[in-house]
Amino acid sequence: MEFKDAFGLFNYWIVIVLMMTGLYIVVSRGNLVKKIVGLNIFQTSVFLLYISMGKVTGGTAPILTGKPEVFSNPLPHVLILTAIVVGIATTALGLALVVRIKNAYNSIEEDEIQKLDLAAENEVDEPGARP
Amino acid sequence: MISAHLPILQVIVPLIAAPLSAFCRRAGVAWYLSLVICAVSFAISIALLIQVLEEGHISYLLGSWAAPWGIEYRVDVVNAFVLMIISGIGTAVLPYARTSIAAEIEPHNQALFYTAYLLCLTGLLGMVITGDAFNAFVFLEISSLSTYALVALGAGTDRRALSAAYTYLVMGTIGATFFVIGIGLVYMMTGTLNMADLAARLQGLEHNRTVLVAFAFIVTGIGLKLALFPMHLWLPNAYAFAPSAVTVFLAATATKAAVYLLLRFLFTVFGIDYHILGLTMTWLFTPLALAAMFAASTVAIFQVELKRMLAYSSVAQIGYMVLGMSFLSVTGLTATIIHLFNHALMKGALFMVLGAIVLRQGAATFNTIRGLGRKMPWTMAAFVTGGLSLIGVPLTVGFVSKWYLVAAALESGRWPLAVLIVLSSLLAVIYVWRVVEAAYLEEPPADSKATEAPLSMLVPTWILIAANIYFGVDAGLTSRIASAGARLLLGVAQ
After folding, report:
1. pLDDT tens readout for residues A21-33
2. Which ipTM did the prediction report?
3. Which of A46, A82, A105 is the closest to B159 by Cβ?
4. Which of B390, B325, B391, B383 is nearest to B355 (CA)?
5. Domains of chain A
6. Helices B133-152 and B107-129: crossing angle, nearest 10°?
């Protein structure tokens, strides 16, 4: 692949970098807020993917002026407006859950919460409880 | 003519009712509204199913914008059947939910519960009825977001509901985002989002690498949503800590809608001739389905909490559905589609029993059900019947599903799979027997004040149990619909 071609795919390289960064943050961080941020970056990469694919080289915004012009495809941009709304709703709900978790567990670290959950499970699991 | 607009009414009626119920300050009013709306949805879905069985598929153009530019709702035998399952369970859960929700959710949240419930129903119905790939994503997210909220409502009794909802949110969002990446990639290659149009335009692009990647993203994304082993990790906790009525609804409908979406994409969009479909089925779906059937059933045996035990059993049952489709034959797909219905009936009934035990005993563990066979005879009898259906005993719907699965395995010449299907059923015998043993053979604690569950919970439970037996004895109707659906998906003449 020539340098020019690789540069022409610049947007897509960024999409992949953002996607992997986001996924990595979700998997590797134990802090629940950071996980939501990672999820956001992950979703943003998809917005960029859709927006990039709608772009036509030399194309302008799809507003009819009567002159013969090349237009970019507006559909992916419209689709991604919907996806952005979904992303905001997910973030809002995720952060609301984190607030509730903080109130209930007094922690937003995944490993501490797991420890507390495990302790609760062992309480049910005590020998006398088994049939 | 109102009947011409049934497809859109199916989705829009619960969608409009959802914010209305949010304005109801009193939970009772919201409950009445939801019950009426769900019954209307159920009636619409039955009307659609009858219409589809008589006239073939229905195509509804939203706002009269011609497909493939506008959004098309396309109803055929397969999704009309799934719509009927979802709205039917949605209606059956509501009479049950009132008592259960009143006991498990804080009073100020009860009216909002019905809002989230109706939204979840809207999302599930929408993703099943739509013929547009991106529209399916939007409805998938509507149902998912409301599901996260529904699961988190369990925090009134156990804070672990919050962490379960959070995990589900993270995993569900990753799954949905993978799905939308896949849709974006196929859109890139074809310039269309209409499923039927996609199928036509993907012809000749089989070996295109972008389409291959899209296939992988879509299968993985939906796989996460349907809790395909080993992507099931969100499911057990979400089911175990959600309010009981939510568990009944989710276990009977949510994964079904995801299985439907997978069927639709694999067989309608990519098509039976897609060159890596066979490969995916043989080397990915068959082993994962078998792993789900055995690993999840084994884990279920060692659970102490009954809700979590049945949740693992659900993962195993999803294995059966995936195994059915992996045969790529009419009998196999018939098994998958009929099991969507049968599993909704049996798991719905079983989780309803657990909800009744939670109401009376505060929790459903092997400790709290000791001797309940005498204290709550009707409830526990329902569990036994539902359990027999789960195992696949003749005269129950479970047997019908297993029959088609084994037939499909033998038909494809892979008899070891038939043996494995029967063996995995034996694992179900163990975990159902553990409950029977604790409930019937052990003495109730001397200070036990357990009484029979209220009628509002028993009646819906027994309606589902009766359906388990009715459709087990006379499987003519369901198997006729399921095999018509299988032929449609595979493109085989009726």
Report:
1. 999 999 999 999 9
2. 0.91
3. A105
4. B383
5. 3-56+65-129 (1.10.287.3510)
6. 160
